[in-house]
Amino acid sequence: MNDTTVTLVGNVATAVEYRDTAAGGVARFRFAVTARRWDREKGLWSDGPTSFYTVSAWRSLGANLAASVSVGEPLVVHGRLRVREDERDGQRKTFVDVAALAVGHDLSRGTAAFRRAARPLRAEVEPGAWPGAEPGTGPPAEPQVGAAEREPVLGPARDRDPWAVAAAEAAAESATRLVTAP
Predict the structure, then answer these.
(1) Cα(160)–Cα(155) distance, rounded to whole angstroms?
(2) What are the residues whose beta carbons fall under 8 Å from the beta carbon of 127, sequence distance 6 or more?
């Protein structure tokens, strides 16, 4: 499929609305993107026109977005662009929508603290609700684990994380070295 993907940097313009649907949960909000340009004559930054987009995020991305984002926050949104025209009140209007694939806070304008979402048990997952799943399919095949043994949705478990293992080995090695002063 030849979708047009875009990456937008801007601010959340409206509150995030989250709804559960038959196809899974969806979060929707309006996103404002304002071009800024350096005015050499005045020696100041000036704002250009503002473009507004309706952003939709489905399933786990939508749920995480609704729990993490509020009006005015700077975001980076990456997704599939869709432009549509509609007639309202006798006038043709153009609407620009983005089906989000990834959303994150713009860290050039502030800080954020990431928290992993808990992975549901296989029995708790509805068909088609797994991130990246095609409608009518379940989660990827993996062994069933109990609630106490759940792993985060993203990334390997800490005992299998190559960065954590390397850091622990380096710390152990430096702790065993004896340094003597001349």
Answers:
(1) 10
(2) 133, 135, 136, 137, 138
Give the span between the Cα atoms of 68 and 64, in whole angstroms. Answer: 6
Q: Contact, 25 vs 39, CB < 8 A? A: no
Which residues, listed in sequence order, are joined to residue 6 by a DSSP beta bridge? 79
* Contact present, 150 and 182 (Cβ < 8 Å): no
- Residue pLDDT, tens place only, 48-100: 999 999 999 999 999 999 999 999 999 999 999 999 999 988 999 999 999 99
Torsion (CA) 66, 67, 71, 75 in degrees, nearest 10: -80
**What is the β-pairing status of strands 44-58 and 24-39?**
antiparallel
Q: Please state, as a whole number, how many other Cβ atoms lie within 10 Å of the Cβ of residue 91.
A: 7
List beta partners, residue 141.
none
* pTM (two decimals): 0.64
